[in-house]
Amino acid sequence: MRQTQRSARLIAALNPAAIYSSDLARAASTAEPLARLTGLPVNLDKDLRERHGGAWEGLTDQEIRQFYPEEYQTWSPPEGEPTAAVADRAAKAFERIADSMPAGSLTVVVSHGAAIGMGMSRLLGLPEQVKVLGSLANCAWSVLGRRAGRWRLLEHNVGKLPEPVPVSAPDAMADPGVVRAQGWARNRS
Q1: Could you count the other beta carbons within 10 Å of the beta carbon of residue 121?
Q2: Are residues 165 and 84 in the same domain?
Q3: How far is residue 2 CA from its own chain's centroid?
Q4: 116 and 187 together in one domain
Q5: What is the dihedral of CA 11, 132, 100, 18, to 10 degrees?
Q6: Per-residue model confidence as pLDDT tens digits over 138-171
Q7: Are residues 96 and 186 located together in one domain of the fold?
Q8: Are residues 107 and 164 in the same domain?
Q9: Contact 54/114 with Cβ under 8 angstroms?
């Protein structure tokens, strides 16, 4: 719960225009602290649901590895929702939500790891099966933007907003025109 509240405070500072969430309780409860801080309603969307796990439903990670080792390697749950279906469903939801918002506005989408990863991969033209982007950590976020109809990944797996390094840091002394923050360089001029 502390992770959720911390992330909500950081994201609220970005002044989102809307909050959308999977209608499953885990995601909706994650969106609630942000809704309280911003006064925005949480718009529930069934298309943001997690991938249906088929035979894996109710099993622990260890049990899945033990009973389904081959399927685990490709993250393909027997009798579960196919990767392409998850990618299509989530990407269409992202597109629909983005199309409903004013240009330049920030919309927060709260969902689940597989749905987010596969949907983002589809929008960015990356293979969904390979997990090129890696996993998204709990209460972390990614930022996507569209320009001329094309999706771009602006930030990924962010857990906090960047903070400037104190002036006494060696890098800051080397170039006072650059503020170093969490691996990013921002030019102040």
Answers
A1: 22
A2: no
A3: 18
A4: no
A5: -10
A6: 888 899 999 888 999 999 888 754 444 444 434 3
A7: no
A8: no
A9: no
SS (H, E, C) 131-187: CCCCCCCCCCEEEEEEECCEEEEEEEEECCCCCCCCCCCHHHHHCCCEEEECCEEEE
DSSP string of 2-18, one letter each residue: HHHHHHHHHHHTT--SE
Nearest by Cα to 144 from 167, 166, 119, 168: 119
- Residue 126 structural domain: 2-158
Q: What is the pTM of this model?
A: 0.78
Query: Do 64 and 75 belong together in one domain?
Result: yes
Between CA 174 and CA 99 the distance in angstroms is 44
30 and 121 assigned to the same domain: yes
Q: What is the pLDDT of residues 51-103, one digit of tens each?
A: 999 999 999 999 999 999 999 988 889 999 999 999 999 999 999 999 999 98
What one-character-per-residue DSSP string does 19-61 give? Answer: EEEESSHHHHHHHHHHHHHH-PPEEEEGGGPPPP-GGGTT--H
